[in-house]
Amino acid sequence: MSQLSIQHLSKAFGHTAILRDINLEVEQGSFLTLLGPSGCGKTTLLRIIAGLEQADQGRIQAGERAFVDCAAGVELPVQQRRLGFVFQDYGLWPHMSVADNVAFPLQMARVRRHDIAVRVREVLTAVRLQQHADKLPEKLSGGQKQRVSIARALAAKPGLILFDEPLSNLDANLREELGQEIRLLSKQLGLTCINVTHDRREAQILSDQIALMKDGLCHQLGAPEQLFRAPVDLWAARFLDAGNILPAATVMGEPQGTAQQVLVPRGAFRLAEDAPLQAAVISSLYIEDRYEVTASLDGHLVKVFTHQLLQQGQPIRLAVDHQQVLSYTAD
Ligand SMILES: Nc1ncnc2c1ncn2[C@@H]1O[C@H](COP(=O)(O)OP(=O)(O)OP(=O)(O)O)[C@@H](O)[C@H]1O
After folding, report:
1. Which residue range or ranges hold the ABC transporter domain (predicted)?
2. Which is the most buried residue in 15, 141, 209, 216, by most CB within 10 A?
3. Taken in order 122, 28, 215, 56, is the CA torsion positive or negative?
């Protein structure tokens, strides 16, 4: 059963439609990311789920409870929605210790002192910060601060955790590490989570499902591999940076039916001496365990992975795994 069901949700600011008939289901224990460019409406949708903004039309059902039912005039107050929040800037109270930051919302909810102490220990252990309980936030690294913020969100056992770009303030290494940790924790504790980001890498690391949003619409919904392997159109392919977008004639020889453009994933190109496509190396970067080569193919820049070191200007021949190639009508 869905933990959260968003049905026919719409919102306008003045005469501008910001969300247009959004329908989404989030399963219990799963992680959904709303991914899209600036202005597509993702933050507005998150704020409506949180109860910080009102929808014009539609329903949001969380388990047995209606958060929002515009037709019936239902708008559950924020504090009754049992939500946890994790923001990109951590939102910690600087003058309070780590333990007090986590305890504060429980004190506000009038939880018994003994139960608060037990719960604070539990959640700080879950995020591996128990030995930092007495420190002030300023003594912690960015990753540790974000883990305090996650512990605080978990403390009141929320039904749903809302994230707003939780990894965006961290450097690249830490982003991967904390992202994996959030994912593991969400699975271990069976958390239902919704995240908002414009960063496709963050969406890939964290999500079971990604809702790719464009102009207030859910443009494509699916697991990360579904979206990145099969973007619904060229706009999605470009936004997701899913591979090389090239004229069909460049890759296939002749245009294929009505398709004028093709998406060739970087891994679908292979260097081979007898291959049909001739290109020239422009640059070569060693990333992770292979070279990421930028080459010029028929006047188009393409990116290719290889384990060989290639020199700038070196001619290469490329074979294409046609099974991985997707065709699109040019936009
Ligand atoms: N309170 C408001 N009043 C009027 N317009 C608003 C309001 N809040 C947001 N908007 C507009 O709604 C549109 C969508 O905003 P929203 O913040 O939801 O987009 P977003 O996809 O989250 O973008 P970003 O990543 O830049 O935050 C934008 O054009 C924004 O200017």
Report:
1. 4-240
2. 216
3. negative
